[in-house]
Amino acid sequence: MFFKNLCFLRNAIVVLLFQIIAAKAYAVDLIDNGSITKEINYTYFPYTVEVTVAKGGIATETFSCQINRPSHNRTAQWPYYISQCINDQSVEVVAGQLQTDGTILPIKSSTENSLWASTGDYSLNFELTIPPLILDYSNASRLLERGTFGPTPADVNATIGKTPDQWVDEQIAVPPSYHLDEYLRIQSIRADLNGSSQEHRNYRSNAWWGIVLNSEDQLRQRVAFALSQMVVVSQNDAGLSGDDRAKGLAIYYDILVKHAFGNYKDLIRDVTYSPAMGRFLTMAGNLPPDPENNQYPDENYARELLQLFSLGEWKVSYQGAIRKDSETNQPIPAYTEEDVQELARLFTGWDEDNGLLSPMVVSASNHDTNPKRILGRHFPGNETAEQELERLLDILVSKRETAVFVSTHLIKQLVTSNPDKRYIARVARTFNDTQGDLAAVVKAILTDPQPYESNPISVSKAREPIVTMTALYRAFNSQMGDNYPHHRDTSLGYGFDTQYSPEGHRFSQGPLSAPSVFNFYPATYTPSGPLEDNGLIGPEFALYTSAEIPNLSNLIFRKLKDDITLSGDVTGLPDNRLILDYSAFTGLWTTDDRENFLALLADTMFDGALTPQLEQRLGDVYDDMPKSNHDNMYKVFWMAAMSPEFQIQE
User: Fold this and answer.
1) Does the pLDDT value for residue 17 go beyond 50?
2) Mean of the per-residue pLDDT values for the chain?
3) Contact 208, 168 (CB under 8 A)
4) Closest by Cα among 147, 4, 197, 41 to 648
5) Tell me: the pLDDT tens digits for 50-99?
6) Smallest Cα–Cα separation from 503: which of 442, 558, 438?
7) Does residue 481 contact residue 244 with C-beta atoms inside 8 Å?
């Protein structure tokens, strides 16, 4: 795998238009001049093709063929397949020509068809059967890596035998878990202790961790977290830190939860009305232009709405390729400075109504009602701010750039840092065809063939530190200590904000705590070395600094060593600690059952299989530890958690 052995990987999806001809002694008439279009994933090979040979309309022979992996006819410039049939007859599967935009040009001209058709009275009928992918343990676990905050053994076993479509549909149907509800539940228990700013931050932090680790709506929560890294709001802003401002941030996060499977227009509408966003990007209190008094609308939200929440910087194709001016060969901007200035006028008159607890309202007297021209569209003037916003949202959702930008962001958050351009195009077209239905977009991402490829593969990404921790906690069925949340310290004991372990170890992420509107890391960051050399990116690697790696390592070490239960019972354990459950491993350790211990660890943390190198390393640590007690069992887990195989999601 690229991120592990640093070899170059390429995408392995092709879209083919199939035509089948028989390479027998007799000629073949094509019943259908090439009309079956399928998305073919290498992992699914071989395909079974049922073939009927007919003469004069009467079937004379039926046999089965298996279509294997493709070759590429570089002279003819289209991919083709050769398959040996089980009765020693051969058939050739011929595709159309692959275009630069990812579509297939069917081979239909009489000149080209005459190469293989129509002199005899024999014909070949065929039916291409592509069964749905039935998830085994490995693929079920990989799906849950992308669609949850980490697979649990129980959830993996419950997913085996389903198709990706079935699992996604089930998750979409699960009712949402809202963070404000959990915030208020914790606050109600600790009502006499809610005076400090930190206490309020704890409510929100604990609500987030409790939900992402334990809720049934895992996919919704994972998508909401992905959206929180696109439509960024951060508690690090001076106007959003502490006290009841934490409640306002919980309300903002629930916008993302609510619309994770909703429509993009509805998401951006609610984000625009959010006082947390109005405060973070300084749109609240925006006044119309008054040049005589040197007063101009704040452009902050207008600019980031275009650049970071919808269009991105450049005009692009559906595959994400930057479009260039035919004369200057320079990238074509997706918007202009004039667009930003005009849009800033649209966002005048908006202001807070009840602090951070209620949507913003518009003061008609402070809204610029003059005509505007935004993204090439005319806004006639004399409209309310609400009417102009709806007009704007219709424009944004119709733009190809929005479809590509949002789709690419979600693909990179859930599946891979380096998606194939045709993968992007398929998902972006889903966004476009459904006018921004995010449930359909997420389903397209997780059910596309690309995430299930294995040879070759381009579906890897570095786990962010916070997702590394959630995956570890969920793998070991972690739960809070006895009597949570009654303890005076509501800290969960893992590094969010001031929620350190006693040694002060922490890591650099938390919900709604990015250092800027540009998220935790640059979207196009690539570390020097093989990734950069091969034109690939690894944005999450920006978080793995010389300071971050030992902090994360020390935190994982302490959690695995100290905050554990060997029996699964947390009675009497501190309620300000998240406790990892080792009970499934204790018997295997005591009886020195090396084979089953490592097999269970593979199921728990590694999609059911250890690489030979990792099995050797973990086996060596296991062998070095005395089995007379469980004091050293955590060292095997720590080695596993810090391995590249766990730190990389694939």
Assistant:
1) no
2) 80
3) no
4) 4
5) 555 444 445 555 555 554 444 333 333 333 333 333 333 334 333 334 44
6) 558
7) no
Residues whose CB falls within 8 Å of the CB of residue 608, separated by 6 or more in sequence, listed in order: 137, 138, 141, 156, 602
Q: Token digits for 158?
A: 């419950």
- Separation between Cα atoms, residue 634 and residue 581, nearest integer Å: 11
Classify the phi-psi angles of 62: left when phi > 0, otherwise alpha if psi is within -120 to 50, otherwise beta: beta
Phi, psi of 55 (to 5 degrees): -130, 120
Q: How far apart are CA 405 and CA 424, in angstroms?
A: 9
Domain spans, the chain = 2-129, 284-396, 399-458, 461-649
Contact, 205 vs 492, CB < 8 A? yes
Q: Kindly report, residue by residue over 603-619, the tens digit of the pLDDT.
A: 999 999 999 999 999 99
Question: 80: closest CA among 131, 124, 14, 33?
Answer: 14
pLDDT at 505: 52
Buried b (16+ CB within 10 A) or exposed e, 603-617: bbbbbbebbeebbeb
Q: What is the mean pLDDT of residues 528-551?
A: 89
pLDDT of 23 strictly over 70: no
Contact 146, 416 (CB under 8 A): no
Nearest one of 371, 382, 307, 368 to 337, comparing CA atoms? 307
Question: Residue 15: pLDDT above 70?
Answer: no
Strand partners, 397: none
* Cα separation, 342 vs 398, whole angstroms: 19
pTM as predicted? 0.81
Contact 649, 632 (CB under 8 A): no
Cβ neighbours of 381 (radius 10 Å): 11
Asked if residue 301 lies in contact with residue 283, where contact means CB atoms within 8 angstroms, the answer is: yes
**205: nearest Cα among 229, 230, 231, 186:** 186
Residues 373, 348: Cα–Cα separation, whole Å:
15
Instruction: Tell me, rounded to whole angstroms, the distance of Cα 334 from its chain centroid.
Output: 24
Q: In the structure, what pLDDT confidence band is assigned to residue 19 with cuts at 50, 70 and 90?
A: very low
Q: Which has the closest alpha carbon to 418: 4, 7, 9?
A: 9
Angle 478-211-491 from CA coordinates, rounded to 5°: 65
Q: Helices 438-447 & 137-147, crossing angle to 10 degrees?
A: 150
Contacts 24+ apart (CB under 8 A), 106-111: 106/17, 106/33, 106/34, 106/35, 107/17, 107/19, 107/34, 107/78, 108/33, 108/34
Count helices and strands in the chain by DSSP H and E runs = 25, 20
Tens of pLDDT along 481-500? 887 776 555 444 333 333 33
Q: How far apart are CA 410 and CA 418, in angstroms?
A: 12
Q: Cα(150)–Cα(49) distance, rounded to whole angstroms?
A: 38
